[in-house]
Amino acid sequence: METQLDKVLTECLVQQDTVGALVANPQGLCLGAKGIINPNVSGIGMAISEQVAKLEPENNAPATICLYSGNKRCIIQKDGEITGIIYKHATESSNN
Amino acid sequence: MEYVRSIWDCLVSICSCLHCTEDISRTAQTETERTHLLANDQQNQSPALRRTNSDLNNDCSQSLPKKDDQDALSRLVQDTAINMINVGAMDSHHLEHQEYTDKIKLYTQRLHQQWNNIQHPGNVPKGLLKDMPNHQFYVYKPVYSEDTSQMKKFIGKCHIGVTDIKIEHKEAVAVVVPFRIP
C-alpha cells in the first residue's frame, strides 16, 4: 500500500538536522508522517503554502517557505497536489 | 408619444429662453467658460415660459408628468448645465501669444501631475504584501539552498510514493444500509 511513501519519509529523516517529515494531500489531510512532527499540522502547512503562492501569482515555480522558531525551522513546499513539510534543527548559522 | 413630445417642447423652450436671458445678463457680469449656464432655473425662467408651463399644467393635467418627474427633469437639466463648458465665452480669440503659451504650460503641468497621481494598471503590484512598501525587510531570513534541494528531492519522491498507494481488498465487505426503519 503506502510502503513506498513510508520509505521516502524514512529516507528524509536520515538527512542532517532533520527531525520530522510529513506529506499532505490537496485537502490538507496527512498522507504520511515520520519523526517528531504532529500529523495535525498538515492542514495548516498546506494553507500556508497556498497563501504564499498568492504572493507571486504569475510565478509557476513552487515556493519554498521557511519558518524559524527558537530551535527549529519548518520548511514547507507545495508542488502540484502534494505538500511536504520538514522540521529541522536550527543550525548556528540560521540563528544569526 | 404626445407625452414625450410635450416634455421635449418644454425643454426646447427652456433652452431658448435661457439663451435670451443670458444675452441680457452678459452685460451685467463677465463670463468665463466655467460660468454656469443655469444659475437657478426657477429665477431665470422668463415670464413667457412660466406662463407656458402654467398653461400646460392647466390644459394637460392628466397627460403631463407628475411633480416628482418634473423635479427630476429640472434637476437633470440643471446638472447638465453645470457640467457644460461654454465655449463661446472662452474668449480664446483675444488671447495674447504669451498668455497662450503660459496656458499651454499650465495645462501641461496639470496633466503631468494628474498622470503621476494615477495608479497605472500595469505598475500596480500584485499579491498579498502589495500594500507593504519594503516587504523584503520583514522576510530577510534566508531559505538555505540545501533545504530547498532537500525539499525538492523529497517532494519528487513523494509524488512517486503517492501514485504507488493502492487500496487492497482483503476481505469481502458486506454493507447493510437500514432503510425506513421506524
Write the H/E string of chain A, N to C. HEEHEEEH
Whole-number average pLDDT of chain A?
88
How many strand segments of chain A?
A: 5
Question: Beta-strand level of the residues of chain B, as a percent range?
Answer: under 5%
> How much of the residues of chain A is beta strand, in percent?
35-45%
Assigned CATH superfamily of chain A: Dynein light chain 2a, cytoplasmic
Structural class of chain A: alpha+beta
Low-confidence residue ranges of chain A = none
Distance between the termini of chain A: 43 Å
Evaluate the radius of gyration of chain B. 37 Å
Q: Could you give the count of β-strands of chain B?
A: 0
Instruction: Give the termini distance of chain B in whole angstroms.
Output: 70 Å
CATH-derived architecture of chain A? 2-Layer Sandwich
Shape of chain B: elongated
CATH class label of chain A: Alpha Beta
List the helices and strands and how they pair.
The complex is a heterodimer of chains A (96) and B (182).
Chain A (H helix, E strand, L loop, with lengths): L2 H12 L3 E7 L5 E6 L5 H13 L10 E5 L3 E8 L2 E8 L2 H4 L1
Antiparallel strand pairs in A: 1-2, 1-5, 3-4, 4-5
Chain B lengths: L1 H25 L14 H4 L2 H13 L7 H17 L13 H21 L17 H4 L6 H19 L19
Keywords (chain A): Cytoplasm, Lysosome
Organism (chain A): Drosophila lebanonensis
Subcellular location (chain A): Cytoplasm; Lysosome
